[in-house]
Amino acid sequence: MAVIVLALVAAVAIGAGDFLGGHAGRRIGYRQAVVIAYATVTLLALIAAPAQEGRLTANALYWGVAGGIVALGATEALFSGIGRGRPAVVTPVSAVGAAALASTVDLAFLDGDVSWLLAAGLATGAVAVLLVTRDNSAEGGPISFSLATGAAAAVGTGLFYVAIDVTAEDAGTWVFVPAGLTIAVLGYGLMRLGGHSWKRPGSGWAVLSGAAVAVSALAISIAVTRGSLIVVAALVSLYPAVTVLLAGIVWRHRPNRMQWLGLAVALVAVWLLSQ
User: Fold this and answer.
1) Do the Cβ atoms of 158 and 233 come closer than 8 Å?
2) Contact assessment for residue 160 and residue 224, using Cβ atoms and an 8 Å cutoff
3) Separation CA 46–CA 141 (nearest Å)
4) CA–CA distance, 163 with 177 (Å, rounded to integer)
5) Is 140 left (phi over 0), alpha (psi -120 to 50) or beta?
6) pLDDT band per the 50, 70, 90 thresholds, residue 208
7) What's the mean pLDDT in 170-189?
8) Closest by CA position to 271, among listed 122, 134, 93
């Protein structure tokens, strides 16, 4: 039960954090939003890590930096997709894809077990993605952009889940210090190279996004020490419901009937994956 609660807390936090990041990106640019968000994550991780079990090992440093590199691309893709694309498409593609990738890696290289429920859950998740991408409106830009950013976010997020899992026992939340710092520093360097000017109005939304991501990171790191990565990743993939709901309220992006059905099917997929 603790694993389920922690994973659901992470799902709500990620959903809110992604929406806030996309909202910030509309105002200050997506790269600056990522930099601010993960500078916040790094600071909060430094505060929280000493109170948790674990230490900053060489393994955590390696996986943190590697995870930060892939997470930088994933987060930029996600913020951009949510802010400029269709949240009802971007987030489910990212969530289900990340859960599927993390599950596959766990099965192939870690200690995951194969079951018919797992296979059924992944197949159901694929159906959910097909349904939720049935959007023929022009709202939010071309669907190809939303699919591309969602897929890119799925790859980076799934690999970041793996980095958390392989370091959780020894490092706990310490892994988020090198990860967050890597994302913030690289992102800022890319901003400078690209000639992007620093904007202040709207930065607070990115700070709130980082705080939400930090909450999700803490919940995930604890959950994977108590349960399977497959279960945790599957339950965390519920987060699109939160992002889509917030986008519908604030931006008035209304999912159509097929997309609502897709979100419902995604819930079934998560239930199957968590059994």
Assistant:
1) yes
2) no
3) 39
4) 13
5) left
6) very high
7) 86
8) 122
CA separation for the pair 32, 55 (Å, rounded): 30
Per-residue pLDDT at 26 exceeds 90: no
The model's pLDDT over 82-129, given as tens digits with 9 standing for 90+, comes to 777 877 778 778 877 887 787 777 777 656 555 677 677 777 877 876
CA distances from 150 to 146, 174, 250 (A): 6, 28, 21
Q: In whole angstroms, what is the distance from residue 66 CA to residue 77 CA?
A: 17
pTM of the model: 0.76
Task: List the domain boundaries for the chain.
Answer: 2-273
237 vs 239: CA distance, rounded Å: 5
Q: Indicate the residue type of 241.
A: A
Q: Cα dist. 21→31, 101, 267 in Å?
A: 10, 23, 24
Return the structure tokens found at 27: 């105002």
Cα end-to-end span (Å), the chain: 12
Q: What is the dihedral of CA 82, 86, 89, 91, to 10 degrees?
A: 10
Count of positions (residues) in the chain: 275
Longest Cα pair distance anywhere in the chain, in angstroms?
Answer: 52
Mean pLDDT of the chain: 80
